[in-house]
Task: inverse folding
């Protein structure tokens, strides 16, 4: 359990911190170098503008690929599997995004209790504020509640440093105020990470985590297809993604969760795998 730090940004407020160096990842450092060299070439010889433009466009294409690949480490550290020690212990981690939801989250909590499983809930802080008792119930039942931004903006991948910091730290402050526990992990909306995310995550004392495999359950109509995506190649050390909510839209995910989650938990038991929270998996492995 982490103590809640004093927030530097209030929900929906302005950033109150001094300017800092944001080029902390190799990809951003290389990008800055490409832009600088390209500008210098044009200054020295304007006829080089086509080569310079091509280099800049190629650089942006590489960065875009990093943004659109949730499992990529191009833009900074990114946890897609549990630590080796957790894998040796036969642990996996179920994670649920976009809650808490007053209809689905209690169902998920009851099913997890039934099978003796623990999970990590990547919650939208505005929903935590709307359903504080439900957020506290997640913690009370032994799960971890993690940072999934304040309002789940769909354009998050396009945000600059200021917008990223506001979303992350506003969420962190809200979750701390409601639950008294500071999240240890961050997951970007839809897994699309903006280029300047790594330093903002580090600044908030968080670790970026995505997944090993996902069910694509948000828009699914066939529970069997969701289950098979999760079971295909399932092994110790995997991080699995499902959803217990939908941002800014009515939730029609109840049927999927009701049919998929019990079968998934039964399969884990058959394989001798134990679902734990990300916090537990990492703390037992001395990686927090």
Result:
């Amino acid at each position: 359990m982490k103590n809640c730090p004093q927030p530097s940004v209030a929900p929906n407020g302005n950033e109150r911190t001094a300017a800092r160096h944001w080029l902390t990842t190799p990809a951003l450092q290389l990008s800055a170098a490409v832009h600088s060299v390209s500008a210098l070439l044009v200054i020295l010889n304007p006829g080089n503008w086509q080569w310079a433009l091509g280099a800049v466009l190629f650089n942006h294409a590489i960065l875009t690929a990093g943004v659109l690949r949730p499992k990529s480490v191009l833009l900074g550290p990114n946890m897609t599997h549990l630590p080796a020690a957790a894998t040796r212990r036969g642990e996996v981690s179920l994670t649920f995004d976009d809650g808490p939801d007053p209809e689905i989250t209690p169902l998920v909590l009851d099913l997890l209790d039934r099978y003796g499983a623990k999970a990590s809930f990547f919650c939208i802080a505005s929903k935590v504020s709307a359903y504080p008792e439900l957020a506290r119930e997640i913690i009370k039942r032994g799960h971890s509640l993690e940072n999934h931004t304040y309002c789940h903006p769909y354009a998050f991948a396009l945000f600059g440093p200021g917008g990223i910091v506001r979303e992350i730290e506003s969420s962190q402050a809200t979750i701390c105020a409601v639950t008294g526990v500071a999240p240890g992990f961050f997951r970007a909306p839809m897994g699309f990470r903006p280029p300047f995310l790594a330093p903002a995550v580090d600044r908030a004392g968080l670790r970026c985590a995505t997944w090993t495999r996902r069910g694509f359950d948000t828009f699914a109509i066939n529970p069997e297809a969701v289950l098979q995506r999760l079971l295909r190649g399932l092994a110790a050390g995997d991080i699995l993604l499902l959803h217990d909510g939908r941002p800014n839209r009515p939730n029609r995910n109840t049927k999927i969760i009701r049919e998929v989650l019990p079968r998934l938990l039964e399969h884990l038991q058959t394989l001798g795998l134990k679902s734990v929270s990300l916090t537990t998996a990492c703390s037992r492995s001395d990686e927090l």
